[in-house]
Amino acid sequence: MFDAKKETKKIVEFIRDYYQKNNLGGAVLGISGGKDSAVVVALLVEALGKENVLGLTLPCHSKQKDKDGAQLIADYYGFQLLNIDLTPVYDSFKDQIKLLGDYTEEELKNSDINIKPRLRMSSVYYMAALMTALTGKTYLVAGTSNKCELFVGYFTKGGDSVHDIAPIADLTVDEVIAIGEELNVPKEVLYRTPDDGLSNQSDEDKLGVTYKQIASYMAGEELPEDVKQRIEKLHKNNLHKFNIPTYRKEVE
After folding, report:
1. Could you tell me the pTM of the whole model?
2. Nearest-CA neighbor of 40 among 190, 195, 227?
3. CB 158, CB 121: distance < 8 Å
4. Per-residue pLDDT tens over the stretch 148-163
5. Which helix (H) or strand (E) holds 26?
6. 14: how many CB neighbours lie within 10 A of its CB?
7. What is the mean pLDDT of residues 37-53?
8. Which residue from 99, 47, 102 is spatially nearest to 77, judged by alpha carbons?
9. CA separation for the pair 167, 150 (Å, rounded)
């Protein structure tokens, strides 16, 4: 049985211990207006203090509800929230791509979706370096992926896969929500239907399975055969995201 109170305390201690042992100062993360980033920022505020946490909204042809959700979380927990609009950067990049060839929207779709989290991650690391310079304390980038997403590879390589500390990477979606309830994350954010804010589809629509089914699979529970096969296919097809094959010279 998952004990949210106990796990919340342990995660907060994990963050504090890591920061103390490594003489670190603060954290920067993107705030999407969804539950994962909300829970992570709540944990960071509890562990480090709101004055040592910087949240970023990084719209890129994004929906207003994403920014509204992020502001709600910032107002509730009291950390600083900055907005960096990446739409002009994205549009400028797309203008350059148009000069390279006449591509169809379908051909560009996957590239367009994935460049956005990569632009966002560059921005988060830029601000972490800037905060380090301004405060004299080392700021890390916090990751917001959960265990279900990671198992099926639902993240962008070089985008949201890049971070310095991962507070919820070993928690299923239901466990993240339980931690969020323990930390009083506003319900309109905690229970919002998860989506990537990029493709106009929910996460589960894109995946073809539910997060609950993914958690059940990882726990070894019985599932319909087609669901099992879908989860296994997602997992196997995305294993390349976790490892970089590296040639090693033979020692003579």
Report:
1. 0.94
2. 190
3. yes
4. 999 999 999 999 999 9
5. strand 26-30
6. 14
7. 98
8. 47
9. 13
Alpha helices in 83-194 (DSSP H): 87-98, 105-135, 147-151, 173-182, 187-190
pLDDT band for 196, please (50, 70, 90 cuts).
Answer: low
Q: Are 179 and 43 in contact (CB under 8 A)?
A: yes
**Residue 171 and residue 179 in contact, taking contact as beta carbons nearer than 8 Å:** yes
Rounded CA gap, 95 and 99, in Å? 7
| Cβ–Cβ < 8 Å for 45, 12 | no
- Please name which of 78, 81, 54 lies closest in space to residue 66, comparing C-alpha atoms: 81
Asked if the model's pLDDT at residue 200 lies above 80, the reply is no
In contact, 15 and 167? CB cutoff 8 Å: yes
Angstrom distances, CA of residue 108 to CA of 91, 100, 113, 152? 14, 12, 9, 23
Which is higher by pLDDT, 219 or 203?
A: 219
Q: How confident is the model at residue 199 (pLDDT cuts 50, 70, 90)?
A: low
Which of 47-61, 112-126, 185-199, 231-245 is predicted with the least confidence, judged by mean pLDDT?
A: 185-199
Residue 216 backbone zone (phi > 0: left; psi -120 to 50: alpha; other: beta): alpha
Report CA dihedral (191, 196, 199, 203) to the nearest 10 degrees.
Answer: -60
Q: Which residues of 46-64 are buried (b: 16+ CB within 10 A; e: fewer)?
A: bbbeeebbbbbbbbbebee
d(CA 125, CA 134): 14
Provide the 3-class DSSP secondary structure of residue 79: coil
